[in-house]
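agent> call fold_tool(seq_1)
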Amino acid sequence: MGELGKGANASITGMPVTVELHWTGDPVDLSALLLHADGKVESDADMVFFNQPEAGGGAVRHRAADADAPEQITVEPAALSASVTRVVLVGSCDPGDENRTFAGVTEFSVRAVQSEAEPVVFPVPAMTEGERAAVLLEFYRRGDGWKVRAVGQGYRSGLAGVATDFGIQVADEPAPAESALVEPDPVASASATGQPPTLSPALTVPPLASPAPTVPAASNVAPSLGRLSLDKGAQAVVSLDKNDRGVEIVATLVWDGGSDDRRERGADLDFYALFVPADEALLGAQQAGTKASAGHTPKGSPYRPPSVSPNADPVADEEPGRGRWLRRKKRFVRTEEDQRHVVYYNNLGSVQAEPYILLDGDSKIPGREVIRIVRPDEQGYVLLCAYSALSNGSGSFRSFGAHVVIDDGRGSAVTVPLYEETETSYWVAIALVDFTAPEGVAVRHVETYGSEGSERRPVLQLDGAITMDAGRVEFKGL
């Protein structure tokens, strides 16, 4: 049985896929929303739950739990309208009881089953911060096919927060006069019968004690870019919600060695991600990705301004990001010994903790190396570079067939080619991924080479400028 970690995805066929909800402890309900290109439902007809068991002309169907099977929702991708780009599955606690949260739920998972395919299971990570609803899975179009992604995004605001994010109008319940008789609340009544409320554009939801979600709201993503290749010096902007913790940017360095002769002499390229976290990034006068001379001093306003007193004790500052920014704000120029700001074969990184960037592994033969970037809210700039070891012999990176593909997993795949035949450089900076772009994430073609014979690593400055031949020298295997 295949298992998906949070943020991971898998391909599915156009055949029906049935998602089963499994849990122990406090009850959890399963529902689904059919989303269109704007990331929203068009009407309450795009919702599937206990009281509305079908949508999309029967392409998405709900089945209540019984003695033989758990609660299920079946999605038939091939039968969905072309206007439907995603189907999200939502788990929720009793909306009429604000004391019910996922803290009372254990062994929480969803299982996606297709005939003639191995079932896929997503064990939902523990939610202990008052979350009362969560986006569990999403099915999304990818080219001519479909994929499923494990999301696991919780909401303290419950179904009301999920509904608002996906275009369902949620009205606050008016406070009754002290002497007035209170009509039965439809949400509470539905809860009493064990049935979820009818979500509609006029939905009334009781006031919630903690309206702010623990995890930022789900993204309302603009239409994808599809597949495109950048011209020299060009850029593409991938639209996304940087607060969406389900986002994963996958950057792949691909190379084939170029020729049999070159492969025999060695073609071990190494993929590097140099990065500036969001709490260190500066918005400078020049566009990030500009080549800068040695001794460059970054200047600009903080991308994430501090919101505490300059005299505050950073050790006592417990809010994520603030203390780190205060401790680092005077260190404008990186030194070559600063190893914390690079992910490569000797420092693979992590997607579970800072820097939220991970190199999947080191390929020593022509093929590919993959760097995964999550938590876009924690990223400032990421510079994707490649290094060619001396044993490779002469030859340009382009002659090895090297290029980078940056994929958001939601239909945008940007190829960053190399155009120059520079044969005497050990280093090339290929692409800058700029998370400070207001529209989403900007991918820029930078193609900047190190000087002849220099094995000093590039340096990514705090304002996103690139200084070649300025970083650490490190020989592989030593």
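agent> call fold_tool(seq_2)
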Amino acid sequence: MSRRVDPYSLRLFLTVAQEGSIARAAEREHIAPSALSRRIADLEQALGAPLLVRSPRGIKLTDAGEIALSRGTRLESELNALAREVQARSGTLSGTLRVLANPSAIVGYLPERLRAFRDGYPAVDVALQECSTQEVVRGCLDDRADVGIGMRTDVPSGVESWFFCNDPFIVVLPRGHHAARRQAMTLAELAVHPLISIQAGGSLDRTLRAKAAEAGLALDVRVVVNSFDAVCRMVEVGLGIAVLPQGAASAYAGTDKFVRRTLAEDWSQRELRLYALRKTPRLPSADAFVTVMRGQPSQSAMAPTPP
């Protein structure tokens, strides 16, 4: 080989192979598509063989690319394991921390605490990905994530968990809606109004429909969208009312155009928790992250100020 294999270029190639698209891989890795393409070309030159076949429909791996994907995945895993073992032994708070979080955590209570962590530990890069709670727990169990944040759920004995925050379901209405006179609404009272729903078949949608079915209620779902902010826009213009996690409602329906009311149902209470693989030693930055996410001061914040 005329050139050495660059680990960063290898990681970009693996992302392209996973995404099936240079554009999607570039977005995921926060790099310009043209720069990513150059990196792949450099890797192909270093290996002495083309790895991808590009087309308007995406990419396809060559035979050499299939070998590079298989061996490269193992190599990257071994390099990551090496870095983590060294950091765990040395106590160094640097490197990359892999975090998985569910959508309501990401738009609700995570950003401010994440900023506090970054302020306390600027040498740690947080690689944050959004996924469902089930994927959060599975990612921790498979050691694909150092820390996860998701809904409270039963977890295997190999995964530890800690309280993160309460994030109950609440009702969001447009300002001036006649039902806004109530300070709380039951599911039965909610069911007589047109509803805006999020992600048909998603966790929130399934919960509402299941609870309505248990109570013998029929929900009048008028609009289904795929994001919390889209739900709030539909509510804002008067197309219906919605049930959202409190954190998401605070982020997207916190202006005087909306009214937020308690959902008076026992099942509306929700708890978000932190998850991590039970192992010793754990990555020091993961322990520091859990400490900050639990609302405790970081070691940097507790350090005395120099005179």
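agent> summarizing second result for user.
DSSP finds 13 helices and 13 strands in the chain. The longest helix spans residues 63-90.
agent> awaiting next instruction.
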